[in-house]
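For this section, I looked closely at the sequence of one protein beside the tokens encoding its backbone, which the following lines show:
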Amino acid sequence: MSATDNFRIPKHSRHVPAARQRVRKTLADWGITDQLADTVTLSANELVTNAVNHCQVTHAQVRVTLTLQGPYLFLEVYDPDRDRLPELRDRGPDAESGRGLALVGELAHGWGHTRQRHTKCVWARFLLPEGTRVPADL
């Protein structure tokens, strides 16, 4: 059994907190309120922030999808700037930004990106703690 939640936000930094809150609420609705919720919420914050800051399509929207499937929780962030792919960069200790993908790479059990016809997707996969079950009413 699987569960999915999708939502969109306008491509503007003032909407990142709303995305973070929606991710946190969805996870709580699914019964995920522990360290995994913190990890996924922080990763969502980084991926949504990247999409908002780097997408150069005017008046775009960013779509966030959370999916529980098998032993994993998948986080996907879509934006319409399909040709600007994320790039992991080596940042020095004094850099004030540019560590988001490295952080997601440390927190997730895998991450990457895919190009689709009109969008790109940056995704992260998180291993669910043993015994986590998708609620039957989802």
